[in-house]
Records
---
Amino acid sequence: MSMDLWHWIVLASVCAFALKLAGYAVPARWLQSPKMAHVAASMTVALLAALTVMNTLAHGTSLVVDARLVALLVAGLALWLRAPFLLVVVLGAVSAAITRWLMQG
Protein backbone atom coordinates (compact mmCIF):
# COMPACT_ATOMS: atom_id res chain seq x y z
CA MET A 1 0.00 0.00 0.00
CA SER A 2 1.52 3.30 -1.10
CA MET A 3 0.92 6.35 1.10
CA ASP A 4 0.93 9.76 -0.48
CA LEU A 5 1.52 13.04 1.35
CA TRP A 6 -2.07 13.49 2.53
CA HIS A 7 -2.10 10.04 4.12
CA TRP A 8 1.01 10.97 6.12
CA ILE A 9 -0.56 14.29 7.16
CA VAL A 10 -3.73 12.56 8.37
CA LEU A 11 -1.67 9.90 10.18
CA ALA A 12 0.45 12.56 11.90
CA SER A 13 -2.70 14.45 12.91
CA VAL A 14 -4.28 11.34 14.39
CA CYS A 15 -1.08 10.54 16.29
CA ALA A 16 -0.87 14.09 17.67
CA PHE A 17 -4.52 13.99 18.73
CA ALA A 18 -4.06 10.57 20.38
CA LEU A 19 -1.00 11.83 22.26
CA LYS A 20 -2.91 14.87 23.52
CA LEU A 21 -5.85 12.68 24.49
CA ALA A 22 -3.52 10.31 26.37
CA GLY A 23 -2.32 13.30 28.40
CA TYR A 24 -5.71 13.45 30.08
CA ALA A 25 -5.24 9.88 31.31
CA VAL A 26 -2.12 10.81 33.32
CA PRO A 27 -2.97 11.09 37.02
CA ALA A 28 -2.82 14.67 38.34
CA ARG A 29 -0.56 13.69 41.24
CA TRP A 30 2.14 12.69 38.74
CA LEU A 31 2.05 16.10 37.09
CA GLN A 32 2.08 18.01 40.37
CA SER A 33 5.12 16.27 41.84
CA PRO A 34 8.31 18.31 42.32
CA LYS A 35 10.24 15.78 40.25
CA MET A 36 7.95 16.30 37.24
CA ALA A 37 8.20 20.08 37.62
CA HIS A 38 12.00 19.76 37.55
CA VAL A 39 11.88 17.54 34.45
CA ALA A 40 9.54 19.96 32.65
CA ALA A 41 11.74 22.94 33.51
CA SER A 42 14.86 21.10 32.35
CA MET A 43 13.25 20.13 29.06
CA THR A 44 12.24 23.74 28.43
CA VAL A 45 15.78 24.98 28.96
CA ALA A 46 17.22 22.20 26.80
CA LEU A 47 14.81 22.91 23.93
CA LEU A 48 15.52 26.65 24.03
CA ALA A 49 19.26 26.00 24.10
CA ALA A 50 19.00 23.65 21.12
CA LEU A 51 16.94 26.18 19.15
CA THR A 52 19.43 28.93 19.94
CA VAL A 53 22.40 26.84 18.84
CA MET A 54 20.70 25.70 15.65
CA ASN A 55 19.62 29.24 14.72
CA THR A 56 23.15 30.48 15.42
CA LEU A 57 25.24 27.84 13.68
CA ALA A 58 23.01 26.31 10.99
CA HIS A 59 22.66 27.47 7.42
CA GLY A 60 20.53 25.03 5.48
CA THR A 61 22.07 21.62 6.06
CA SER A 62 25.55 22.86 6.99
CA LEU A 63 27.15 24.45 10.02
CA VAL A 64 28.67 27.91 9.67
CA VAL A 65 30.51 30.29 11.93
CA ASP A 66 29.60 33.87 11.13
CA ALA A 67 28.39 37.11 12.74
CA ARG A 68 25.52 35.31 14.47
CA LEU A 69 27.98 33.47 16.70
CA VAL A 70 29.70 36.74 17.64
CA ALA A 71 26.31 38.29 18.44
CA LEU A 72 25.37 35.30 20.62
CA LEU A 73 28.66 35.49 22.51
CA VAL A 74 28.32 39.24 23.08
CA ALA A 75 24.70 38.86 24.19
CA GLY A 76 25.66 35.97 26.48
CA LEU A 77 28.41 38.07 28.06
CA ALA A 78 25.99 40.96 28.54
CA LEU A 79 23.48 38.62 30.21
CA TRP A 80 26.22 37.21 32.43
CA LEU A 81 27.07 40.78 33.47
CA ARG A 82 23.33 41.27 34.25
CA ALA A 83 22.70 43.93 31.62
CA PRO A 84 19.07 44.92 30.97
CA PHE A 85 17.41 42.80 28.28
CA LEU A 86 16.99 45.68 25.82
CA LEU A 87 20.70 46.44 26.09
CA VAL A 88 21.49 42.75 25.50
CA VAL A 89 19.45 42.79 22.29
CA VAL A 90 21.03 46.05 21.09
CA LEU A 91 24.57 44.84 21.87
CA GLY A 92 23.93 41.59 20.00
CA ALA A 93 22.56 43.41 16.96
CA VAL A 94 25.37 45.98 16.91
CA SER A 95 28.06 43.31 17.29
CA ALA A 96 26.53 41.32 14.41
CA ALA A 97 26.39 44.41 12.23
CA ILE A 98 30.01 45.36 12.99
CA THR A 99 31.21 41.79 12.40
CA ARG A 100 29.41 41.62 9.05
CA TRP A 101 30.83 45.00 8.06
CA LEU A 102 34.37 43.92 9.00
CA MET A 103 34.01 40.59 7.14
CA GLN A 104 32.96 42.35 3.92
CA GLY A 105 35.96 44.56 3.54
---
Amino acid sequence: MEILNTTLTIDPKKYARLANRIVVKAIETEEEYDHMVARVEQLMDKGEARLSAEESALLETMAILVQAYDDRHHPLPSAAPNKMLAYLMETSGRTARDLLPVFGTRGRLSEVLSGKRSISKEQARRLASVFRVNLDLFI
Protein backbone atom coordinates (compact mmCIF):
# COMPACT_ATOMS: atom_id res chain seq x y z
CA MET A 1 0.00 0.00 0.00
CA GLU A 2 1.47 3.36 -0.99
CA ILE A 3 1.42 6.07 1.60
CA LEU A 4 0.77 9.45 0.06
CA ASN A 5 3.08 12.33 0.82
CA THR A 6 0.95 15.44 0.83
CA THR A 7 2.05 18.96 1.46
CA LEU A 8 -1.37 20.35 0.67
CA THR A 9 -3.12 22.76 2.96
CA ILE A 10 -6.05 21.07 4.59
CA ASP A 11 -9.15 22.59 6.12
CA PRO A 12 -9.24 21.32 9.72
CA LYS A 13 -13.07 21.42 9.84
CA LYS A 14 -13.46 19.40 6.62
CA TYR A 15 -10.80 16.94 7.81
CA ALA A 16 -12.53 16.54 11.19
CA ARG A 17 -15.89 15.85 9.50
CA LEU A 18 -14.30 13.14 7.32
CA ALA A 19 -12.37 11.61 10.21
CA ASN A 20 -15.45 11.55 12.44
CA ARG A 21 -17.36 9.49 9.86
CA ILE A 22 -14.64 6.86 9.91
CA VAL A 23 -13.52 6.95 13.57
CA VAL A 24 -9.78 7.22 13.04
CA LYS A 25 -8.02 5.50 15.92
CA ALA A 26 -5.55 2.71 16.56
CA ILE A 27 -6.89 -0.57 15.17
CA GLU A 28 -7.41 -3.17 17.90
CA THR A 29 -9.53 -5.93 16.33
CA GLU A 30 -9.84 -7.76 13.01
CA GLU A 31 -13.29 -6.20 12.58
CA GLU A 32 -11.85 -2.69 12.97
CA TYR A 33 -9.03 -3.67 10.61
CA ASP A 34 -11.46 -4.92 7.94
CA HIS A 35 -13.54 -1.76 8.28
CA MET A 36 -10.48 0.50 7.97
CA VAL A 37 -9.14 -1.42 4.95
CA ALA A 38 -12.53 -1.09 3.26
CA ARG A 39 -12.49 2.68 3.83
CA VAL A 40 -8.92 2.92 2.50
CA GLU A 41 -9.97 0.99 -0.61
CA GLN A 42 -12.95 3.30 -1.13
CA LEU A 43 -10.70 6.35 -1.14
CA MET A 44 -8.09 4.66 -3.34
CA ASP A 45 -10.80 3.64 -5.83
CA LYS A 46 -11.75 7.29 -6.16
CA GLY A 47 -8.31 7.95 -7.65
CA GLU A 48 -5.47 9.96 -6.19
CA ALA A 49 -6.01 12.87 -8.58
CA ARG A 50 -9.66 13.19 -7.55
CA LEU A 51 -9.08 13.23 -3.79
CA SER A 52 -9.44 16.46 -1.87
CA ALA A 53 -6.54 17.57 0.31
CA GLU A 54 -8.49 16.40 3.34
CA GLU A 55 -9.20 12.99 1.81
CA SER A 56 -5.51 12.57 0.90
CA ALA A 57 -4.45 13.42 4.44
CA LEU A 58 -7.05 11.04 5.89
CA LEU A 59 -5.99 8.27 3.49
CA GLU A 60 -2.37 8.67 4.59
CA THR A 61 -3.38 8.49 8.26
CA MET A 62 -5.54 5.40 7.73
CA ALA A 63 -2.78 3.70 5.71
CA ILE A 64 -0.38 4.26 8.61
CA LEU A 65 -2.88 2.72 11.04
CA VAL A 66 -3.47 -0.29 8.76
CA GLN A 67 0.29 -0.78 8.32
CA ALA A 68 0.85 -0.62 12.09
CA TYR A 69 -1.82 -3.27 12.66
CA ASP A 70 -0.37 -5.43 9.88
CA ASP A 71 3.11 -5.14 11.36
CA ARG A 72 1.85 -6.27 14.78
CA HIS A 73 -0.61 -8.99 13.75
CA HIS A 74 0.39 -10.13 10.26
CA PRO A 75 4.17 -9.79 10.07
CA LEU A 76 5.81 -10.95 6.88
CA PRO A 77 8.08 -13.93 7.37
CA SER A 78 11.70 -12.99 6.95
CA ALA A 79 13.12 -14.18 3.67
CA ALA A 80 16.30 -13.63 1.72
CA PRO A 81 16.03 -10.44 -0.38
CA ASN A 82 16.19 -12.38 -3.67
CA LYS A 83 13.40 -14.71 -2.50
CA MET A 84 11.29 -11.75 -1.43
CA LEU A 85 11.82 -10.14 -4.84
CA ALA A 86 10.80 -13.34 -6.62
CA TYR A 87 7.70 -13.60 -4.43
CA LEU A 88 6.69 -9.99 -5.05
CA MET A 89 7.23 -10.37 -8.79
CA GLU A 90 5.07 -13.50 -8.85
CA THR A 91 2.24 -12.11 -6.75
CA SER A 92 2.14 -8.76 -8.56
CA GLY A 93 2.48 -10.20 -12.06
CA ARG A 94 5.58 -8.12 -12.77
CA THR A 95 8.14 -9.45 -15.23
CA ALA A 96 11.85 -8.90 -15.82
CA ARG A 97 10.91 -6.30 -18.41
CA ASP A 98 9.01 -4.34 -15.74
CA LEU A 99 12.13 -4.21 -13.56
CA LEU A 100 14.61 -3.10 -16.25
CA PRO A 101 14.53 0.49 -14.93
CA VAL A 102 15.72 -0.86 -11.57
CA PHE A 103 18.40 -3.31 -12.71
CA GLY A 104 19.37 -2.10 -16.17
CA THR A 105 19.62 -5.58 -17.74
CA ARG A 106 17.79 -8.87 -17.48
CA GLY A 107 21.13 -10.54 -16.77
CA ARG A 108 21.66 -8.45 -13.65
CA LEU A 109 18.12 -9.23 -12.47
CA SER A 110 18.74 -12.92 -13.14
CA GLU A 111 21.92 -12.80 -11.04
CA VAL A 112 20.01 -11.15 -8.19
CA LEU A 113 17.17 -13.68 -8.34
CA SER A 114 19.63 -16.59 -8.33
CA GLY A 115 21.51 -15.15 -5.35
CA LYS A 116 24.75 -14.60 -7.31
CA ARG A 117 24.49 -10.84 -6.88
CA SER A 118 23.09 -8.89 -3.95
CA ILE A 119 20.63 -6.03 -4.23
CA SER A 120 22.31 -2.63 -3.92
CA LYS A 121 20.90 0.07 -1.64
CA GLU A 122 19.79 2.10 -4.67
CA GLN A 123 18.10 -0.93 -6.21
CA ALA A 124 16.41 -1.66 -2.88
CA ARG A 125 15.10 1.90 -2.76
CA ARG A 126 13.74 1.62 -6.30
CA LEU A 127 12.21 -1.82 -5.66
CA ALA A 128 10.51 -0.52 -2.52
CA SER A 129 8.96 2.22 -4.63
CA VAL A 130 7.89 -0.18 -7.41
CA PHE A 131 6.29 -2.68 -5.04
CA ARG A 132 5.19 -0.12 -2.44
CA VAL A 133 6.87 -1.95 0.42
CA ASN A 134 9.52 -1.16 3.00
CA LEU A 135 13.02 -1.19 1.51
CA ASP A 136 14.23 -3.36 4.42
CA LEU A 137 12.72 -6.35 2.61
CA PHE A 138 15.53 -6.10 0.06
CA ILE A 139 18.50 -5.49 2.36
---
Amino acid sequence: MARQILPTCGADRLPQAEGRAMAINDLPMLSALRGKMQWHQERQRVLAENIANSDTPNFRPRDLVEPKFDAGGQQAPGAPMGSLPMLRTSTGHLAATGGSSFAQDRKVGYETRPAGNAVNLEDEMLKVSQNQMDYAAVTTLYSRSLNLLKTAIGKR
Protein backbone atom coordinates (compact mmCIF):
# COMPACT_ATOMS: atom_id res chain seq x y z
CA MET A 1 0.00 0.00 0.00
CA ALA A 2 1.45 3.37 -1.01
CA ARG A 3 1.72 6.10 1.54
CA GLN A 4 -0.22 9.23 0.70
CA ILE A 5 1.75 12.44 1.20
CA LEU A 6 -0.43 15.49 1.47
CA PRO A 7 0.83 18.91 0.40
CA THR A 8 1.61 21.15 3.35
CA CYS A 9 2.36 24.82 3.74
CA GLY A 10 6.01 24.21 4.56
CA ALA A 11 8.70 21.75 5.49
CA ASP A 12 7.50 21.62 9.07
CA ARG A 13 4.99 18.80 8.66
CA LEU A 14 5.36 15.01 8.78
CA PRO A 15 2.97 12.83 6.77
CA GLN A 16 0.80 10.37 8.70
CA ALA A 17 -0.92 7.25 7.47
CA GLU A 18 -4.45 8.58 8.12
CA GLY A 19 -4.03 11.56 5.83
CA ARG A 20 -3.49 14.09 8.61
CA ALA A 21 -0.23 15.98 8.85
CA MET A 22 1.54 16.09 12.19
CA ALA A 23 3.67 19.13 12.98
CA ILE A 24 7.31 18.36 13.66
CA ASN A 25 7.08 20.60 16.71
CA ASP A 26 4.56 18.18 18.24
CA LEU A 27 7.27 15.56 18.76
CA PRO A 28 7.91 15.15 22.51
CA MET A 29 11.69 15.57 22.27
CA LEU A 30 11.45 18.81 20.32
CA SER A 31 8.76 20.05 22.68
CA ALA A 32 11.07 19.37 25.64
CA LEU A 33 13.92 21.21 23.92
CA ARG A 34 11.64 24.18 23.23
CA GLY A 35 10.60 24.21 26.89
CA LYS A 36 14.23 24.15 27.96
CA MET A 37 15.05 27.08 25.66
CA GLN A 38 12.14 29.07 27.10
CA TRP A 39 13.35 28.25 30.61
CA HIS A 40 16.85 29.56 29.77
CA GLN A 41 15.34 32.76 28.34
CA GLU A 42 13.32 33.34 31.50
CA ARG A 43 16.33 32.52 33.71
CA GLN A 44 18.41 35.07 31.80
CA ARG A 45 15.74 37.68 32.59
CA VAL A 46 15.75 36.79 36.30
CA LEU A 47 19.56 36.86 36.49
CA ALA A 48 19.65 40.23 34.73
CA GLU A 49 17.13 41.50 37.28
CA ASN A 50 19.43 40.30 40.09
CA ILE A 51 22.37 42.19 38.58
CA ALA A 52 20.28 45.32 38.00
CA ASN A 53 19.25 45.31 41.68
CA SER A 54 22.75 44.72 43.04
CA ASP A 55 22.62 48.06 44.90
CA THR A 56 18.98 47.89 46.04
CA PRO A 57 18.71 47.68 49.85
CA ASN A 58 17.31 44.39 51.23
CA PHE A 59 17.19 42.78 47.76
CA ARG A 60 17.66 39.01 47.70
CA PRO A 61 18.79 37.35 44.46
CA ARG A 62 16.41 34.87 42.85
CA ASP A 63 16.90 32.01 40.46
CA LEU A 64 14.61 29.61 38.61
CA VAL A 65 14.23 25.96 39.52
CA GLU A 66 15.36 23.86 36.58
CA PRO A 67 12.60 21.79 34.95
CA LYS A 68 13.02 18.02 35.05
CA PHE A 69 11.95 15.80 32.15
CA ASP A 70 11.49 12.04 32.01
CA ALA A 71 12.91 9.80 29.26
CA GLY A 72 9.90 10.49 27.01
CA GLY A 73 10.44 14.25 27.09
CA GLN A 74 7.44 14.90 29.34
CA GLN A 75 7.77 16.90 32.53
CA ALA A 76 8.72 14.57 35.37
CA PRO A 77 6.20 14.02 38.19
CA GLY A 78 6.81 16.35 41.11
CA ALA A 79 8.79 18.78 38.95
CA PRO A 80 7.98 22.49 39.15
CA MET A 81 5.40 23.74 36.67
CA GLY A 82 7.81 26.12 34.93
CA SER A 83 5.59 29.15 35.34
CA LEU A 84 4.36 31.27 38.20
CA PRO A 85 1.13 30.17 39.83
CA MET A 86 -1.88 32.39 40.43
CA LEU A 87 -1.74 34.40 43.63
CA ARG A 88 -4.84 34.89 45.73
CA THR A 89 -5.07 38.62 46.38
CA SER A 90 -8.75 38.65 47.30
CA THR A 91 -11.04 36.20 49.04
CA GLY A 92 -13.19 36.19 45.89
CA HIS A 93 -10.34 34.76 43.80
CA LEU A 94 -9.72 31.08 43.17
CA ALA A 95 -7.28 29.40 45.53
CA ALA A 96 -3.70 29.23 44.22
CA THR A 97 -2.40 25.77 43.43
CA GLY A 98 1.15 24.45 43.02
CA GLY A 99 4.35 26.15 43.98
CA SER A 100 6.49 28.88 42.54
CA SER A 101 9.28 28.02 40.14
CA PHE A 102 11.50 30.61 41.84
CA ALA A 103 14.11 29.61 44.34
CA GLN A 104 15.81 32.01 46.70
CA ASP A 105 19.59 31.76 46.84
CA ARG A 106 20.45 30.38 50.26
CA LYS A 107 24.06 31.63 50.36
CA VAL A 108 23.37 34.94 52.10
CA GLY A 109 25.50 34.65 55.25
CA TYR A 110 28.62 36.78 55.11
CA GLU A 111 27.87 38.02 51.59
CA THR A 112 24.97 40.17 52.77
CA ARG A 113 25.96 43.83 52.82
CA PRO A 114 25.06 46.15 55.70
CA ALA A 115 22.15 47.53 53.63
CA GLY A 116 20.73 43.98 53.48
CA ASN A 117 21.53 43.33 49.81
CA ALA A 118 22.72 39.76 49.14
CA VAL A 119 23.60 39.95 45.42
CA ASN A 120 27.12 38.75 44.67
CA LEU A 121 27.94 40.10 41.20
CA GLU A 122 30.64 37.50 40.55
CA ASP A 123 28.26 34.61 41.24
CA GLU A 124 25.51 36.20 39.15
CA MET A 125 27.84 36.76 36.20
CA LEU A 126 29.00 33.12 36.40
CA LYS A 127 25.36 32.01 36.34
CA VAL A 128 24.66 34.28 33.34
CA SER A 129 27.65 32.86 31.48
CA GLN A 130 26.67 29.24 32.23
CA ASN A 131 23.07 29.93 31.26
CA GLN A 132 24.20 31.44 27.95
CA MET A 133 26.36 28.39 27.15
CA ASP A 134 23.54 25.98 28.06
CA TYR A 135 21.08 27.93 25.91
CA ALA A 136 23.48 27.81 22.95
CA ALA A 137 23.87 24.03 23.39
CA VAL A 138 20.09 23.44 23.51
CA THR A 139 19.54 25.71 20.51
CA THR A 140 22.16 23.83 18.49
CA LEU A 141 20.64 20.48 19.43
CA TYR A 142 17.16 21.71 18.50
CA SER A 143 18.19 23.06 15.09
CA ARG A 144 20.22 19.94 14.25
CA SER A 145 17.30 17.72 15.24
CA LEU A 146 14.98 19.71 12.97
CA ASN A 147 17.44 19.49 10.08
CA LEU A 148 17.84 15.73 10.62
CA LEU A 149 14.07 15.22 10.57
CA LYS A 150 13.65 17.39 7.47
CA THR A 151 16.37 15.37 5.73
CA ALA A 152 14.70 12.10 6.76
CA ILE A 153 11.35 13.09 5.26
CA GLY A 154 12.96 14.42 2.07
CA LYS A 155 12.33 18.13 2.61
CA ARG A 156 16.04 18.97 2.38
